[in-house]
């Protein structure tokens, strides 16, 4: 079962973007429009009318298995003794999850959010293949804008400078986020 759940992560991003754009979100023969047609709704051009939603759905589909593996590692690292102690103290499943398991998963959740945010900010392939940054610039992000400046605007110098600034900003934000995560781990170990 785990292998089936991990499968979207094993698909190349370009193939995943094309799968969503052509097979699922196509306004004429896409599977999503066929499904909503069964309940009487008209076809929707998903990548033109809802470009950010379309890209986010494809990215979530592709990266959910990775996040699932991170959280599974967190769940497997939880001590059975703590869960047994909560059960003996009279905590039900909901209270055990809220007050024991969820605080234990905090580090894993923060790491998942950090890695997911870095990936979403640096996404290029899904934007290029699904919406081409459009309509207009509705779904363009910084890497796509750098591509446009370099290869469509022929301004290699400015795009190179923007790329360097993007990498530096990503490193700074990642370091700040990692410091917060490590600070929470250190405070957890001391208490």
From TrEMBL:
The protein's topology relative to the membrane is: Multi-pass membrane protein
What SUPFAM superfamilies does this protein map onto? MetI-like (SSF161098)
Chief subcellular location equals: membrane
Spans traversing the lipid bilayer: 52-75, 96-121, 160-182
Q: Which InterPro entries match?
A: MetI-like, MetI-like_sf
Top-level division of the source organism's lineage: Bacteria
Instruction: Indicate where this protein resides in the cell.
Output: Cell membrane
Q: Does the keyword field hold Signal? A: no
PANTHER family for this protein: BLR7065 PROTEIN, INTEGRAL MEMBRANE SUGAR TRANSPORT PROTEIN
Family (UniProt): Belongs to the binding-protein-dependent transport system permease family.
What protein am I looking at?
ABC transmembrane type-1 domain-containing protein
* Native source organism of the sequence: Nesterenkonia aethiopica
